Amino acid sequence: MINVLEDEDCTICENLDTPFSNHAPELTPEKKIELIQPKVKEILEILGLDTNDSSLAKTPYRVAKMWVKELFYGLSVENKPSVSKFQKNYDYGEMIVSKNISIFSTCEHHLLPIIGKAHVAYFPKNNEVVGLSKINRIVDFYAKRPQVQERLTYQIVNEIQSVMQSEDVACVVEAKHLCVNYRGIRDTNSSTVTSLFEGQFKQQTTKEEFLKSISLETEF
Ligand SMILES: [Zn+2]
Fold first, then answer.
1. Mind listing the pLDDT tens digit for each residue in 186-210?
2. Is the terminal CB of the chain with fewer CB neighbours within 10 Å at N or C?
C-alpha cells in the first residue's frame, strides 16, 4: 500500500526499502541522461525561462547528468561498492568506529539536499575487518539516492551487517534537511538525529561506549 503524504512536510519514513518501481526499465546511464534532458528543459520552459539563452542552454544536460552520475548514482546496483574483508593477524575483538563520515544526500519528498554526518560501528567477526574507506563508500552509495534519513540509517546498517556477516552494527546519522532549513518552516538551526543499534549494540554499556566515542573531540 502506498502511503500518501498529507502535507508538504517531510514525514517519518514509510518504507525501509527504496521504493523502486516494478517496471523500472533497464536503461544505460547515457540513455537515462538522454531521456531526462528534454523533461528538465520542459520544466524550465513551463516556469517561464528561455532555454535558448546561452546561460541556460546546457542546464537540462547538466541536471540530467548530475542526477544520473552523481546525486542518484546509488539507484543503480551496479554502482554498489564491492567490499572485500581482510584477515587480521592480531586479535582485536573490540568495536571499530568510523565517525564523521560526510553525508550529501537528497530528500525524496522535495528533492532538496540533506547534509550531515554518519557514525558507524561494528565488531569484527572471525578476525575480519573491512578497509576503513569502504565504510565511507557504503554510506555514500546509499546517500546518493532520493532518501529519507531513517531509511538511510537502516540501509547503512543492513549493508554492513551483510558484508560483515554479523548482527553487531550500529549507526547514528545527524543531518540538516534543506527542505526544513530553506523552505517551509525555514528553521536554519534544526537538525535531525536517527540511530539504529543492532546485535551487541542493543546492550546499554556497548551502546554508551559507541555514543561516547562519537562525542569525543576529534579536530586534527
Ligand atoms: Zn523534504
1. 888 889 999 999 999 999 999 999 9
2. C
Q: Which of 143, 138, 202 is nearest to 170 (CA)?
A: 202
Q: Is 10 designated active site?
A: no
How far is it, in rounded angstroms, from Cα 101 to Cα 118?
A: 5
Give the CA-trace dihedral at 3, 6, 11, 13, to 10 degrees. Answer: 0
User: The whole model's pTM is what?
Assistant: 0.90
State the catalytic residue, choosing from 109, 161, 167, 174: 109
Indicate the domain borders of the chain.
29-71, 85-215
Respond yes or no: is residue 87 known to be catalytic.
Answer: no
Q: How far is the CA of 9 from the centre of ligand 1 (A)?
A: 6
**Has 23 been annotated as catalytic?**
no
